[in-house]
Design a protein that fits this description.
single chain, 4 helices, mainly alpha
Length: 100
């Protein structure tokens, strides 16, 4: 192998390696690409709208689902129990058991 052929092969291999490892420009995200997630009420409303023949409103009235939601909303929040104060001497004596 002559020097010229070796040089050509080396340059060709380097060019192929460079082309294989090269990456394109990073994509920029547009404002329309991101979606905000739907809240739970929006999801349930969209599911109800997608299935018009199920008569879900009459089922809710039958089982009192809306009334239960209103009672839950109107209920006063539960009072949390105060934490019990920690009492003690502050020091702990730990003894390691001896091997028999």
């Amino acid at each position: 192998m002559t020097t010229t052929t070796f040089l050509r092969t080396t340059v060709l291999a380097a060019g192929l390696l460079f082309a294989a490892c090269a990456t394109g420009r990073p994509r920029t995200e547009t404002a329309t690409a991101r979606r905000t997630p739907d809240s739970a009420p929006e999801r349930s409303a969209s599911l109800r709208a997608a299935t018009p023949g199920l008569e879900l409103e009459s089922e809710d009235e039958r089982w009192g689902i809306e009334a239960a939601k209103e009672r839950k909303r109107d209920r006063p929040p539960k009072a949390t129990a105060p934490a019990a104060p920690v009492t003690g001497s502050g020091s702990v004596d730990v003894k390691i058991p001896t091997q028999p």
